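Today's session is about reading a structure prediction critically. Students often jump straight to the picture, but the first step is always the sequence itself: look for stretches that repeat, for charged clusters, for runs of hydrophobic residues. Only then move on to the predicted structure, which in these notes is written as discrete structure tokens rather than atom positions. Here is the chain we will use throughout the hour.
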Amino acid sequence: MIPRTSLPRATQKVLRSQCSKRPSDCRTLASAKSPGFNYETGEVDGVKFASRDLPGPTTQLAVVARAGTRFQLYPGFAEGLEKFAFKSTEKRSSLRMTREAELLGGELFSYHSRENLVVGAKFFREDLPYFAELLGEVISKTKFLRHELHEEVIPIIKLGQKAILGNTNEMALNSAHSVAFHRGLGTALHPTSSVPITKYLHEQDLKAFSRAAYAKPNFAVVANGASHEELSKWIGEFFNDSPATPPKDLPPIETKPSRYYGGEERIAHDGGNDMVIGFPGSGAYTGGHYKPEIAVLSSLLGGQSYIKWSPGFSLLARATRAQTQAHVSTRNISYSDAGLLTISMGGNARHIREASEAVVEILKAISGGDIAKDDIKKAIANAKFRTLEAGQNTGTGLELTGAGLVQSGKPSQIDGIADAIDGVTEEAVKKAAKSLLEGKATVSTVGDLFVLPFAEEIGLHV
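Below is the predicted structure for this chain, in token form.
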């Protein structure tokens, strides 16, 4: 930065006068405390909603429902409900929805995670009434036609099943969840080819599940780039047709608390090599199971670099420099009442084996205090930045906020998360690493099992 004293005096006067006369024009760095980061919440006729009035000409609006794979009644229901989004309703055909959205320059999307189903749209700010009406219609008036299920929905699901067969990374991650949590969170994110989805997917059953998934207690509406008052107005007008309570003739959506088990699974595959080592992680901030030290430990372990031309500061990045044919990354996957800290390794089988041994050695070093204080400081800064970046991201913020409203009645406000990470101490990180090593690990291995190690061979308890 050029020192201010080196600027000509005339220039300094201009800068001072501009700032004193028009302080709003002198931009400052945003912090976690900035109002624009946080959501304003409300409720209209039983429908929970949140909005963040970001400046700009566009808006992102989404319905976040408690209908991910953890909560589905039968295999494939979360996937089927996602694929039926924006199909024919009582008022519009799917073709009409497509044409109207195109004419308005909008974008329609739907996806599901292990806990949530997200149906939403992106559009110009002035088109909020139309898209609010459209989403309200999609969740309450979809017809679930038989021909759409068999000609459009099931074929797409089967194509996705074929893609999973060759994706060893996703296979290992699904396996890790299954070993760690069994049912619920252990359900695969997408049904595998061995799942008989046609046995369970019927249009009437999906329609019944949608009435439970889109009952008012089970979903929330979240917007980025919309005023709170205007959003409240249109939600009150267009979301009245959703049932006030789930139908009593259906099994209730399972809300049994998650339990961590741990263990090991090995799957032979000739299409690649992947290994996932998992431990009990941190839950979501809104669920009461949040552990900020896990976020710091995840950054400290790392593996991937965020700095170009540098392997990065993380311990795994430095320890696995010689394993050039293995990609290593660490992340905490958080859910409402649990989390899974995963170290994923993919690539050459021999290099994965060597990298997995380094994982255990580094955890032992951290638990024993054999770690530089500067590395802890860097990990805290990195964890805080990643958290703030994710919260600022409109897509990530939509799901996190909607899920928080549905599960605990409060949105995910990133200023509180950032403060929690700032308060993590070196001792807390050591204790977290020690507890991971003393407990049961989750190890899922896919690929060349002749070379890839068992958990006990690298010193893990399963």
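Discussion point for the tutorial: The chain has 16 helices and eleven strands.
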